[in-house]
Amino acid sequence: MLASAALVLLGGWSLTHAAGQGSIAPAAPGPTFGASLDDVRAVDTSQALPALDPAIKAKADALFADASDVGETRALYVLRDGKPIYERYGEGFGPNSKLISWSMAKSITAVLAGIMVSDGQLSLDSPAPVAAWERSGDPRGAITLRNLLHMASGLEHVETGNPVWEGDTVDMLFGAGAQDMASFAEAKPAAARPGELFNYSSATSVILSDILTDTLTPSQNPDARREAMREFIQGRLAEPLGMTSLTPEFDAHGTMIGGSIMHATARDYAKFGEFLRNRGVVNGQRLLPETWMRFMLSPSPNDAGYGGHIWLNRSRPAGADAALWPDRGPNDLFACIGHQGQYIIVSPSQRVTVVRLGITRDDEFPALRRHLADLLAAL
């Protein structure tokens, strides 16, 4: 799977768009990257759902019909008040298809961090417990979890290289850093003071994953590290939410690839979105403190369009690429966004969660955002 993913990344990785299998769920075949859009027949499962306003259905169907504009939509799942109102899949995919998260995984990692902070195992504003930064005089020793979650560590991380394979992300996932991704990411020097600059980075999320794992177990045995994280995710997130398909991947050192590579069905991604829409509560049980939800969904100091490892429907700084549509959508709308057009969109004021999974090229993203904004406006 990683080899296939590498081909996609080398074909064009985008900061805004990126905007070891686990035992939580059985292994499943990876998605077929770059599949032809010729003669794509979508699977429509909406017959079992309540009748939908034709205007809404037309906006949703357009994400499949307008493939030449928005790319291939493999899954679209819409919930209102927690109940499905639209569900459709591209040919070869269905309700049981586990599809890659890409950077949507970052928001799952943030929730796991929030659980550990609420447990008292980690602190949001204390120096991050990274051994490589603890030498006297090392400026990286001042980096906090808050800085990491805000993508403001100050580390010299380059998400997208020119050419693309010269970026840290490709090198970390598929090159020199692949065997021990956290060590690769943590070894980067400081390029700015912590909290000074916004610098979107998948390597930052791997550092968070490493911190979480080290908190769970002192062992450096890869199997022990993987098992500790799997058990934590299963007991504290996947099982309570019913995300039975959620499958994280790990590097050879046993560190979860928490910024890029998880797998789940569209329905299970929607369960995560609903969990966020309900402010960290599921089935009447609070799993995440309200204070952590406020942190995640508050604009970061250097980019109002980004919170705590999640995208917000706010205007971004001049020159930054659009992530959502603040000129059209509600102010409280937010989203987990992944490379090639993976979205979990949550609009609390509309009581709506939308999951879109597929394959979208960089030049198709403006059209995809317009289609998604149109759908949300119709809802």
Structure summarized in a few sentences:
By secondary structure, the chain is of the alpha+beta class.
Which key terms come to mind for this protein?
379 residues, alpha+beta, Beta-lactamase, seven-stranded antiparallel beta sheet, three-stranded antiparallel beta sheet, 12 helices, disordered N terminus
Your description of this structure?
The chain has helices spanning about 1-10, 55-65, 65-70, 105-120, 145-150, 170-175, 180-185, 200-215, 220-240, 265-275, 290-295, 365-379, and strands spanning about 45, 70-80, 85-90, 100, 245-250, 260-265, 280, 285, 310, 335-340, 340-345, 350-360. It is α+β, with helices and mostly antiparallel strands and about 375 residues long. Strand 11 (about 340-345) and strand 12 (about 350-360) form a beta hairpin. Mean pLDDT is about 90; it is low at about 1-40.
Mean pLDDT: 89
Shape: globular
Give the C-level CATH assignment: Alpha Beta
Rg over CA atoms, rounded to whole Å, is 19 Å
Helix and strand succession? Answer: HEHHEEEHHHHHHEEHEEHEEEEH
Query: What's the CATH topology label?
Result: Beta-lactamase
Low-confidence stretches: 1-40
How many strands, what sense, and barrel or not for the largest sheet?
A: 7 strands, antiparallel
CATH architecture: 3-Layer(aba) Sandwich
Count of helix runs:
12
Number of strands: 12
Topology:
Blueprint: H1 2-11, E1 43-44, H2 54-65, H3 67-70, E2 72-80, E3 83-89, E4 99-100, H4 105-118, H5 145-149, H6 168-174, H7 181-186, H8 202-216, H9 222-241, E5 247-248, E6 262-264, H10 266-277, E7 281-282, E8 285-286, H11 290-296, E9 311-312, E10 334-338, E11 342-347, E12 352-359, H12 365-378
Antiparallel strand pairs: 1-3, 2-3, 2-12, 4-6, 5-6, 7-8, 9-10, 10-11, 11-12
